[in-house]
Amino acid sequence: MNILYLGLLLVSILCVGLVDARWRLFLWADPRRALLVLAVGLAFLLLWDGVGIATGIFSREGNPISTGILLAPHLPVEEPVFLLFLVQVTMVLYTGSRRILQTRAERRS
After folding, report:
1. Model confidence pTM above 0.70
2. Do residues 88 and 13 lie in contact, with contact meaning Cβ atoms separated by under 8 Å?
3. Measured between alpha carbons, how far is 86 from 9 in angstroms, rounded to an integer?
4. Based on CB atoms within 10 Å of each CB, which residue in 13, 26, 79, 103 is the most buried?
C-alpha cells in the first residue's frame, strides 16, 4: 500500500487553499457558498463516476502509487479527493481570473 498519490493530492489541496487564503478568492471570500459549491460539485462528479463505473466506461487498474483502498468497486479512495481538488482549483482559477479581468477593466475606465 502506497500513499504517494493521496499525499500529493492533499498537498495540492493545501497549496491551492493557501493561494485562496492569500487573495480571498473562493473559500475565504464566502465560506458558506464555497462549501456548498464544493459539495454540489463533488456530488455531481461522484455521480458521474458512478454512472461511468456502472456502464463499464470507467474501471480501476492497480498502480504502484495508490493505496489500493476502494470505497466501492472501481472507486479508489483517491478519487473523491481528486474530484474535490478539481472543483477547488477550478473555482480558485475562475474567481482569480474574474478578479484580474475586473481590475483591468476598472483601470481602463
Report:
1. yes
2. yes
3. 10
4. 26
Domain spans of the chain?
Answer: 4-108
C-alpha cell at 73: 468497486
Residue type, 19: V
Residue 6 C-alpha cell reads as: 493521496
What span, in angstroms and rounded, lies between the C-alpha atoms of 54 and 81?
A: 20
Distance CA 102, CA 50 (A): 38
pLDDT tens track of the chain, all 109 residues? Answer: 799 999 999 999 999 999 999 999 999 999 999 999 999 999 999 999 999 999 999 988 888 899 999 999 999 999 999 999 999 999 999 999 999 999 999 999 8
Q: C-alpha grid cell for residue 62? A: 492497480
Q: Rounded CA gap, 6 and 27, in Å?
A: 22
